[in-house]
Every structure is written in structure tokens, then in C-alpha cells.
Amino acid sequence: MRSTKQRLLELGVLVGLLAVGAAIVVTLGLVPIKASSGHWPITHWLLSFASGRSIASQSALMGIEVPPLNEPGMLRLGAATYESNCAWCHGSPLQATPAVPAAMTPAPPNLVEHAERWKARELFYIAKHGIKFTGMPAWPTQQRDEEIWPVVAFLLALNRISEDEYASLLNRGEALDEPLGNSIVMGSIQNCTACHHASGHSIAGPRVPHLNGLASDYLVHTLRDFRDGLRPSGIMQPIAARLTDKDLQSLAEHFAVQEAIEYQTPGEVPLAQGEVSQDEADLAAGFQLIHGGDKGSKIAACQHCHGPAGESMSHYPSLAGQSALFIEEQLRLYAVGVRLGGEADIMHEVAEKLSPTQRRQVARAYAAMGQTATKLASE
Ligand code: HEC
Ligand code: HEC
Ligand code: HEC
Predict the structure, then answer these.
(1) How many CA atoms lie less than 13 Å away from 218 in the CB half-sphere?
(2) Is omega for the bond preceding 109 within 30 degrees of 0, making it cis?
(3) What is the pLDDT of residues 164-205, one digit of tens each?
(4) 108 Cβ below 6 A of ligand 1
């Protein structure tokens, strides 16, 4: 009878021979890696099964919390982001999967049917991390999780959205209503109108800033910062990357001369985008920071640079009337050093000293300063 030791030795030799055989097959290039023949059914099944199980378990283990998905503007921002980041592979209610990505192995599935198979947290996980070995890319930055949720909200509604509704969510046709008198702007502004409207006024909810009246120098440098990845945003980075220097300059000039937001005196709480607090104490603390700063914490009054009413001063961005959500998030990004480029250093010093409560208070005060036009309010 052979001993256990002998058996193990034989097994070891067998494994070794198999490994050498596999190495020879791979080294001689005998394994076809061509995408044109697709996967064998067994490979396809195995990969789908393994990735499906991984997505389900990993998204559960990470304890991803799903925020409310029906906030104002969420569907519109989700649709417009989907059109910009995803439709060129997955198709949309307006187009079948385009021919080039359709020839991938595996091909990007039509999400009208596929998205409903997944839970919200799983869709978030897929959109954020992508899927290895399939060509499904990760979100362009790993630092802006909150921008992914509108896309999840849109994917969950996708199978109920008709062609017409999708076109209307993208605000198609609006840009051409009024001739813009500049052929470069005419050509490239259609990439902006779904979210910023041709007037620069956000129509896709409080995550999208108003551009009307922002200084043209600021617009140019911040668009370059998106393009260079210094200002991380999975929504704006790909859009800015498609702009030439000429596009960028003329779009900045176009938005800078659009009528700015009207300012209101502090105290009159305006019709902003839904999240302005009525809390007088918070507002008063916010206005104090804007006009007087915080001497104890050595925080300069914001108005030194952003103007007494938050209007655009030279190349500093105007803040009045931007949503509280947007301002608070930008202050957080400066405070943690994620937003770079341009003159972000100046804001790092300010934002680092603001407490999270102060960030919220000053954001609310600036949001309360601007009166936004209700006729353009988002859904
Ligand atoms: C470069 C092409 C490409 C882009 C861009 C792309 N995807 Fe994908 N996507 C794929 C491929 C390929 C798969 C994998 C298909 C498979 O595993 O069978 C996939 C899979 C998925 C799945 C899983 C579908 C299923 O049921 O198997 C979801 C959900 C998804 N993508 C969402 C998105 C979203 C949201 C975006 C935009 C933020 C996006 N994708 C952008 C190529 C792409
Ligand atoms: C899918 C929606 C969407 C589209 C389309 C879009 N944007 Fe944006 N834009 C956003 C969001 C969201 C932000 C906020 C980014 C952040 O939080 O960092 C933003 C921010 C900006 C900013 C920064 C403003 C500030 O106050 O700092 C500029 C400038 C800008 N966009 C210009 C453009 C231009 C020009 C186009 C067209 C070429 C365009 N955007 C298209 C959603 C969009
Ligand atoms: C010393 C001048 C200075 C002071 C003081 C200052 N800021 Fe700024 N702020 C800037 C500059 C410059 C930028 C543009 C930075 C960049 O390019 O990213 C900016 C940008 C911002 C932005 C981003 C706006 C957008 O549209 O993206 C916010 C929000 C902001 N500041 C809030 C504040 C608040 C709140 C205070 C007061 C607590 C304040 N700032 C004080 C100079 C200043």
C-alpha cells in the first residue's frame, strides 16, 4: 500500500505538469482573447453569476445607506448625467445600444430591462465601482458619492420613462428657442442646457449651481479645473473634458452676461430651491459670518472677497442665490482638501476653520440672499 506521503508527491507532480502545460499554452499564445467571438455560454454564466453575487454581498457588507431619491431635480439631474456618462454605451429611451459598444464582450446590456433587477444600493455600488473584466467603468472620481444617487434614482424609474419624457428631462430643444448669436456657443451650449438652462439658471435641482452672472474669468478657470481633474466631479469632469479652449471661453462669456440672480435684503426669506431653512437663529449666525466673520476663530468676513450682497467681485464667484446644499458641499470639499486648482488655496484656509454647523449656517444665509426665478424652478 502506498503511503500518504507517496500520494501527495504524485499529486504534486500532476499539479506541476498541469501548470507547466498551461504556461506553455499561454506563452505560445494559443488562447484566443478576441472579443469578436463572444464568451462561451459557460464562461458567460460563470462571470455573470460571480459578479452578481459579489455586487449583492459587497454592497450589503459596506452598509450603503440609501438617501431619499425623490428630492427636487433628482430625476432630471439623473437623466442628464446618464445621457452624458452612460448612454454612449448602454443606449437610452432615445437610442438603442450604439454599434461600437454593442461589439464589446460582454456587450453593455440595455438598462431599461436590466436596471430593475437590482436594488438601489446595488446600482449605486455598480455605478461607483464599475465591474472588473467587463468594460463597465468606475465613476470618474471616488470622492463624490453624493453625485451618484440621482443616477440611481433615474435607473430605478427608467422602465417607466417614455421617449418624450426622456427628451423633456434633457430639456431638448430649449437652447435653440432664442438664437444666441454666436456659432461656437450655439454648438456647445446644448451640452449644458439639460442642467444649467441656456440662461445659466439651474433647472436640475439644488445640486446644480446657477451660472448666470458668474465672472467669466472664474468660469474659465473652474471649467479648466474640472477638465484637469483638480476639481473632482463625476458629472462635470467628462463634460468639461469635451470642451476645447475656444468652447470654454465662449461659454464662459455667454453665461457671465446672463442676468444675475436678484438680491434680497437679509430677513426676507425668498423662494429658493426648497431647502432654505426658516430657522432665524441659523440665518442670523450665517449673515454674521458673511458680514463680520468670526474673530475668535480668525475667519475673515466672506464679503471681503464675495461682496456684501454675494455678487460677483472681479474673479470671485458670486454666492447669493446658490442653493444651501451646493454651498455647504463646496465648503466641505475645500475643508477636506478635495477641491483644488484655481485659487482654491484661499478657500482652504477659510473652510478649514469653519465648523460643520457654521458651514450649514453660512450656506443657508447665502441661499436666502438670492431670489430665484420661480418660472424656471425644477420639477
Ligand atoms: C464603456 C462602456 C460603458 C459605460 C460608459 C457604462 N457602462 Fe455600464 N456596463 C458596461 C458593460 C460592458 C457591462 C457589463 C455587462 C455584463 O456583465 O454582462 C455594464 C453593466 C452595467 C450594469 C449591470 C447590468 C446588468 O444587469 O448586468 C449597470 C447597472 C450599469 N452598467 C450601469 C451603468 C451606468 C449607471 C453607467 C453610467 C454612469 C454605465 N453603466 C456606463 C459598459 C458600460
Ligand atoms: C448633467 C448635468 C450637468 C450638465 C449637462 C452640465 N453641468 Fe455644469 N454642473 C453640474 C453640477 C452637478 C455641478 C456642480 C459640481 C460640483 O458639485 O462640483 C456643475 C458645476 C458647474 C460649474 C461650476 C460653477 C461654480 O459655481 O463653481 C460650471 C462653470 C459649469 N458647471 C459649467 C457647465 C457648462 C459650461 C456645461 C456645458 C458645457 C455644463 N456645466 C453642463 C451639472 C451639469
Ligand atoms: C480672501 C478671499 C476670500 C474669502 C475671505 C472667502 N472666500 Fe470664498 N472663495 C474665494 C475664491 C478665490 C474662490 C474661488 C476658489 C476656487 O477657484 O476654487 C472662492 C470660492 C468659494 C466657494 C465656491 C463657490 C462656487 O461657486 O463654486 C464658496 C462656497 C465660498 N467661496 C464660500 C465662502 C464663505 C462662506 C466665506 C466666508 C466664511 C468665504 N468664501 C470667504 C475667496 C474668498
Answers:
(1) 17
(2) no
(3) 999 999 998 765 555 566 666 666 888 999 999 999 999 999
(4) yes
User: Which-ligand-closest: CA of 138?
Assistant: 1
Ligand nearest to the CA of 360: 3
Q: Are 321 and 312 in contact (CB under 8 A)?
A: no
Instruction: Provide the pLDDT confidence category of residue 270 given band limits of 50, 70 and 90.
Output: very low
Q: Is 106 close to ligand 1, i.e. is its CB under 6 Å away?
A: yes
Measured distance between the N- and C-terminal CA atoms of the chain, rounded to whole angstroms: 81
Q: In Å, how far are 121, 305, 324, 331, 356 from 283, measured between CA atoms? A: 35, 20, 11, 17, 15
- Determine the Cα–Cα distance for residues 193 and 18; give it in Å rounded to an integer: 60
CA atoms within 13 A on the CB side of 230: 12
CA-to-CA distance for 137 and 342, rounded, in angstroms? Answer: 28
For ligand 1, is residue 126 a contact (CB within 6 Å)?
yes
User: Cell numbers 476645447 label which residue?
Assistant: 244
- Judge whether 323 and 210 are in contact, CB under 8 Å: no
Place of cell 442642467: 195
Residue 146 Cα distances to 68, 151, 344, angstroms? 11, 10, 21
Is the Cβ atom of 347 under 6 angstroms away from ligand 2?
A: no
